[in-house]
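tool=predict chain=A
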Amino acid sequence: MQLKKKYSYVPRISQHLAGRFLEHEPNNKTHFPKKALPEKIVCVTTYRVTITNSCSTIYDAVDSLRNRKIVYDQRGRKQIRAEEIIELQNVLNIHNDSGIKDLAQIGSMMRRILSGEHILFADGMPNAKLAKVNHNQWLLFDGHHSLLAYMHAGKKYLHEVPHLTVENEGAKTVADDEIAVFFGRHANKVRGRDWRNYVINWQAPGNKQLCPRIQKNMGELYNALSARISAY
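tool=predict ok
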């Protein structure tokens, strides 16, 4: 893909510090609770990832953080008050309820959250990853199981959940044509259309993976699944 202009993605990792927070230590792999801090205070690390021909998508930007092992780098972390109070129910989903495959996993995650643990990858990367698609709207492009587990555990706001957000430098919001990458092999089918009308179901046969949107946001997705999650 030849880039027409150079710009940067700005991934930001945010972790909620109110109450008990278990932080992964890379050296001895021990977990310990951080000191309780006031509500709405988050620990934020912001990075700048320059877009090149070899690093041209949001997925590439996220992978570059992991490949450079800078998730562990705590030197740039700042404790700040959450800039936006974003309700989890208003976050846009990229899967319908039929695309959520493992309700037992959500139940297991929920119990870990209630015990004081956060849901992270082994390298410290948050499961929940979002892109800013307009001035007050965020799209969850990875981590639906995790976010549903936090919602089932009673969390209502994004700053209560460890998460990674991606914005464009300058414009802040991600352009519509950049969203197509989240639809994988079906990306060309949503380019030039309103991607908000579609979701992806990786569990379905290839010709049925691109689906009309049924649940409009994470609130509707959670409502469609909550009774079944409770069975686990």
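DSSP finds six helices and eleven strands in the chain. Helices lie at 58-67, 103-114, 144-152, 176-179, 187-190, 218-230.
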